Amino acid sequence: MKRIVFIIIFLSICSEVFALTYSGVKIVNRKILPLGDSITEGDVSGDPYWRNDLQNLLGIGSYDFVGNRRSPTSSSYWNYDMEHAGIGGQQTAAIEARLPELLTTYFTAGTDFEHSFVLLHAGTNDCFQYSCDVSATALDNIEDMIDLIMAHNSQLKVIVALIIPSDKASPEEYQNTRIQNFVPLLRTRLQSIQSTYPNRIIIADMNAEFLNTANCSPDIAACLDVDFGVHPNTTGQAIMAAQWKRCIDSPSNQGCNGN
After folding, report:
1. Is 162 helix (H, G, I), strand (E, B) or coil?
2. Please, what's the b/e burial string for 6-36 (b: 16 or more CB within 10 A of its CB; e: otherwise)?
3. Rounded CA gap, 20 and 16, in Å?
């Protein structure tokens, strides 16, 4: 009986420890939803791409990463929070269709909405499937996602990435041309949305970070997976994580280069 009482007391103390605050905010209530396609999902066989790098920068455990997917499951990542909502190959319409359930499941009462974020990197697969630069569909879907998030709780902050370039070889190099044509259109649309939701929509210029030869020398190929030319390699993952963190730390969009 004494052992049972001791275990109960020990568990109670542990629950109080894990409820401690990080910079004055309850960790369990401060959330990040990584949302997107394979660039968010990572390589399910063993590489989460930028998500673990971001947790290292923020401080492991400083945010509750949420989502209905968990990868990778390798023991080498057991100290990280591997929950996310990235699914490889999805276009913006499919990502939008998943969003309402994600919001109601993970951003529930008790969430510290003011200090919680949705990190959205979407549009790459739209550009691969059709000329996203001349179609408003992807732009409309991204705007719809922002509206859904703001309707769920207007205190949430949405960081939307200007998507990273690709380096696909001939005959598919046209896909990066589509991405580069799409990015300024996305920037303009997001700047318009910012006026509707002041201080809630943050633009992360991931694209410029990869085009910057100070980061990717001599060109973007140095930051992308050589096997596919779309996903970030180790260098690119660190660049993405650093840019997400700059945006998280700068909610007025200072330092994100999105404007």
Report:
1. coil
2. eeeeeeeeeeeeeeeeeeeebbbbbbbbbbb
3. 7
User: DSSP of 23-92, one letter per residue?
Assistant: TTEEGGG-EEEEEESHHHH-BTTTB-THHHHHHHHH-TTSSEE--SEE----GGGTTS--EEEE-TT--H
pLDDT at 23: 45
Average pLDDT over residues 135-160: 96
**pTM reported for the whole predicted model:** 0.88
Are 235 and 216 contacting, i.e. CB atoms less than 8 angstroms apart?
yes
Q: How many CB atoms lie within 10 A of CB 221?
A: 14
CB-side neighbour CA atoms (13 Å) of 42:
26
- Distance (Å, rounded) from C-alpha 161 to C-alpha 203? 6
Predicted pLDDT of residue 131: 73
Q: Which residues have C-beta within 8 Å of that of residue 61, sequence separation ≥ 6?
A: 22, 27, 81
Q: What tokens appear for 73 in the block? A: 């499951």
Q: 10 Å Cβ neighbour count for 217?
A: 12
Give 6's pLDDT tier (boundaries 50, 70, 90). very low
Which amino acid does the sequence have at 244?
Answer: W
